[in-house]
Amino acid sequence: MAASFTFQLTYWAPRCIAVLAGLWIILKSMRFAHKKVFTAVFPPIMDRITQVYNIKMNDFKLELFRELTDLKQQSKDPLTILEIGAGSGANFQYYPAGTIVVPVEPMKTFDSYLKSNAEKCPDITVKDAVIAYGENMKTISDDSVDVVVVTLVLCSVRNVSAVMGEIRRILKPGGRFYYIEHVYSDQRNSWVQLAQRTLNPVWELVTGCSLTRATWKDIESGGFTRVNYKKFNAPLSGGGALMSPHVMGYAVK
Ligand SMILES: C[S@@+](CC[C@H](N)C(=O)[O-])C[C@H]1O[C@@H](n2cnc3c(N)ncnc32)[C@H](O)[C@@H]1O
Question: According to CATH, what is the number of the domain 3-252?
Answer without folding.
Answer: 3.40.50.150
